[in-house]
Design brief:
Strand order of the largest sheet: 1-2
Helix content: 55-70%
Shape: globular
Number of domains: 2
CATH architecture of the largest domain: Up-down Bundle
Radius of gyration: 19 Å
Number of helices: 12
CATH class of the largest domain: Mainly Alpha
Structural class: mainly alpha
């Protein structure tokens, strides 16, 4: 069987990259046309399109979901940059982006994590848990890290375990920008500190267990749910829905 010419795959890759990162034809979260349609658009075979899509996945531009298609998770080849976010619409879009990005990162981490990676993720998790119990018992932490720093450290440990530097660097910049620029999120996080850390402890546990067991599907689903719940916990009129209880949400992961 003749293999698709790499030059054709690179051509389609460059065209799609242009459409996503330069022409802005696809926003973050947008679904790309199916392989058959892309093949027709560029006058190539579907295997050639798959080569291009694989390259976009490797670079962290798109995320492919089995049975669903390919979705844009980044629209820049360089650093992910967040402007000052000060309204609910932007925050909602930000969390939509994080959900797509980090669910794929968790999936890869479950598949690729080494023993050392798993140990680092566990340490980051228990760092959050330890701080939670200090808060509940009234013990002040002697360390300078904030709860958000500990949360970010857990997510970055997972990104490192995905073994794709594009994903890690994208998330690292994203979380750094979030802490510095997203005033509404940091303000609400501190206002509901105890509740947020309690939720982080349980939901991080779902993600951790899935990664430790090597269950990629479960890890992706747990991370997706975690990010969506994080969004819902701060969006107006949604806090009440979350307070109904964590048990209802665990059924999604059963």
């Amino acid at each position: 069987m003749t293999k698709p010419a790499p030059s054709l795959g690179n051509y389609v890759y460059q065209q799609l990259l242009q459409q996503i990162c330069v022409d802005n034809l696809y926003a973050i979260g947008a679904k790309l046309p199916p392989e058959e349609r892309l093949a027709k658009e560029f006058g190539v075979s579907r295997p050639v399109v798959r080569i291009a899509l694989a390259q976009l996945r490797t670079e962290g531009i798109i995320q492919s979901r089995q049975g669903s298609g390919s979705y844009v998770i980044r629209t820049s080849q360089g650093a992910v940059k967040i402007d000052q976010v000060d309204n609910w619409s932007d925050i909602n879009q930000f969390y939509g982006y994080r959900a797509h990005l980090e669910s794929e990162i968790a999936r890869l981490a479950a598949e690729r994590a080494t023993a050392e990676d798993r140990e680092r993720i566990q340490k980051a998790y228990y760092h959050v848990v330890d701080d939670y119990y200090k808060n509940t018992t009234g013990e002040a932490s002697k360390e300078e890290e904030s709860d958000m720093d500990r949360d970010c450290a857990f997510h970055l440990a997972i990104a490192a375990a995905a073994h794709n530097h594009f994903y890690y660097e994208s998330l690292e910049r994203l979380l750094s920008e979030m802490k510095q620029s997203m005033f509404l999120i940091t303000k609400i996080f501190e206002a509901h500190k105890k509740r947020h850390v309690e939720i982080l402890t349980e939901e991080h546990g779902w993600v951790l267990n899935a990664i430790l067991s090597g269950n990629a599907t479960q890890a992706s689903a747990a991370m997706l749910l975690h990010i969506q719940n994080a969004r819902d916990s701060i969006m107006p009129n949604k806090q009440a829905a979350q307070v109904q209880g964590l048990t209802e949400r665990t059924s999604v992961l059963a």
